[in-house]
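QA checklist item 7 of 12: single-chain prediction sanity check.
[x] sequence parsed
[x] length recorded as 206
[x] structure emitted
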Amino acid sequence: MLRRVLSTLLIPLAAGFALVTIPAKAQPQSAAKVQPGEGRPYEVADSEVWDVPDPVSGRGYQVFVALPPSYAREPQRKYPVLYVTDADYAFPIIRQIGRRLNLDGPKLEEFILVGLSYAKGEDGAASRRRDYTPTPNGPSSAPAGTVHGQGRAYQIYLRDQVKPFIAARYRVDPARALFLGHSYGSLLGAQILFSEPGLFSGYILG
């Protein structure tokens, strides 16, 4: 299912971000990142991680940020932003898709990618069940003690903490912020779309 969602990413992204024509000679190329080696963790090139806690719930969250290649060269330019849930796995995938499209495919307007992490110190599955769902859980196969239904609180966290944090630190185009969610992430996106549609300018849900 994830493969089908990612394979169709270009169409909704193109609807939110402009497809542009870039001459081949004008497309800058950067050297591949040299990984640290010696058994140290793999690093995603040109990425940053920030702690953005939720003061209401007291939970710690992080945002993963990938800046476009032209960000440092064009200091006056503002960029659209793509927010993606389930950042632990989705952030590196979406980053590479965006970069790859601008090498071998249709040229997609550069954007700032923001990955939304699970709560720090928690199991990812438990964190997303709680934060990405709109209603409390009924009978289910989920482990005992599993909590659902706090999507509204997480939505408020995105509105009041994450988006202002990103806007204060990066040159973002406030009129163009897309939300990308898969599975439970798409359930969260649907909740935002129906309850507070203006929080994002577009939604990619699968």
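[x] summary fact logged: The helical segments are 2-7, 10-16, 87-104, 124-131, 151-169, 184-195.
[ ] second reviewer sign-off
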